[in-house]
Write a structure and sequence with these properties.
signal; elongated; about 25% strand; YCII; alpha+beta
């Protein structure tokens, strides 16, 4: 009896999760490159402490300013979807992340190399193909509305 209940539950659950979404917007899905699940591939970039020891505070400040300018440019170009620093030190020396909208890993690598803090060795990177919501780029429009002070 228990196995029949389990089978019926799985059938009901499976049919529920594969039901058509009444709010589905084909035009929006197509414009964002969404698959049937509303998802698409991106590239996750993990920035970690690099090998460069830049002790000149002015030089380091200039490179980090360039880092922020590059983030804004990549976001404006629609290539950078998410960016942010780690808020605590960690055993892996991770400093932050990017999620890039790139077609290939080579494109993601070339986008990362536009960042002066990466080129200078302040940050090293690990890059992984990642699967996430195709709607991620839409949050950026709201971000400006909740940002009181820009870097």
């Amino acid at each position: 009896m228990k196995s029949l209940f389990t089978i019926l539950s799985l059938i009901l659950f499976s049919s529920a999760i594969s039901a058509q979404n009444k709010e589905f917007d084909q035009k929006l899905a197509d414009s964002l490159g969404a698959d049937q699940y509303g998802m698409k591939p991106y590239y996750l970039v993990i920035l970690k402490k690099g090998k460069a020891e830049i002790t000149d505070k002015a030089k380091r400040s200039e490179l980090m300013k360039g880092h922020m300018i590059n983030i804004k440019k990549l976001a404006k170009d629609g290539k950078l979807i998410v960016a942010g620093p780690m808020l605590e030190e960690n055993q892996n020396n991770y400093s932050g992340i990017f999620i890039l909208d790139a077609k290939t890993k080579e494109e993601a690598e070339s986008l990362v190399l536009t960042d002066p803090s990466v080129k200078s060795g302040i940050f090293d990177v690990d890059i992984y193909k990642w699967y996430g919501s195709a709607a991620l780029p839409l949050y950026l429009k709201s971000h400006d509305k909740v940002t009181k002070v820009h870097f």
